[in-house]
Specification:
- By secondary structure, this protein is an alpha+beta fold.
- The chain has one domain.
- The chain has two helices and nine strands, in the order αβββββαββββ.
- It has a nine-stranded antiparallel beta sheet with strand order 6-7-5-4-3-2-1-9-8.
- The radius of gyration is 20 Å and the shape is globular.
- The N and C termini lie far apart (about 65 Å).
C-alpha cells in the first residue's frame, strides 16, 4: 500500500514544484511601468537601463578609463546586456539572458555608497523597488527619466 501511494504522490509533488517554479519566473510586465533609468554625471560610468513596454530591457554601461591609466586609454569600455523584465506590486524583476550577462553581484554590491536597493535574487535576476525615482547601479546613482 505504501508503494502505491508513493508512486502517485511523487509525480504530483514534482508537477506542483515545476508549476510553482515556472510561475515565479513569469512575473507580468505592466507596460505602464516601462521606464528608463539614466546615470547622473559622474567620473565612473554612463549607465542606461531601458525597461521597454514589450517586457524586454536593455542595460548599457560605458565604463570610463581611470584618469591615471598606464595605457593612456581614453575610450570607454562599452557593455550591453539584454533580458526580460516584469513587476510585482512593489518591485521590478529583471532577468538577464543566460549566455551574456553581467556579474550581478558587482552591479548590486551592498557596500556601495550611496547604498542600493538593488538585490540579486539568483545568478540572472535582479530586483529593485518599483516606485523609487532613483536607484544605485554599480555604485552610480541613476534617476528615472520623466515620461512625456
Amino acid at each position: 500500500m505504501k508503494h502505491h501511494l508513493y508512486t502517485r504522490l511523487v509525480p504530483l509533488v514534482a508537477f506542483t514544484l515545476a508549476m510553482a517554479s515556472c510561475n515565479t519566473l513569469k512575473e507580468s510586465a505592466d507596460p505602464r511601468y516601462a521606464a528608463t533609468y539614466l546615470s547622473y554625471p559622474n567620473g565612473m560610468a554612463d549607465i542606461r537601463l531601458e525597461l521597454k513596454e514589450n517586457a524586454r530591457f536593455e542595460y548599457q554601461m560605458n565604463i570610463f578609463p581611470e584618469p591615471d591609466n598606464a595605457e593612456g586609454d581614453t575610450v570607454p569600455e562599452q557593455f550591453t546586456f539584454k533580458g526580460r523584465w516584469g513587476n510585482t506590486d512593489d518591485n521590478y524583476i529583471l532577468r538577464f539572458r543566460r549566455r551574456k550577462k553581467p556579474d550581478l553581484y558587482a552591479l548590486a554590491n551592498p557596500g556601495y555608497e550611496p547604498s542600493t536597493e538593488v538585490v540579486v535574487t539568483d545568478e540572472r535576476t535582479l530586483r529593485f523597488p518599483l516606485y523609487d525615482e532613483e536607484v544605485v547601479i554599480w555604485g552610480v546613482k541613476c534617476f528615472r527619466e520623466k515620461s512625456e
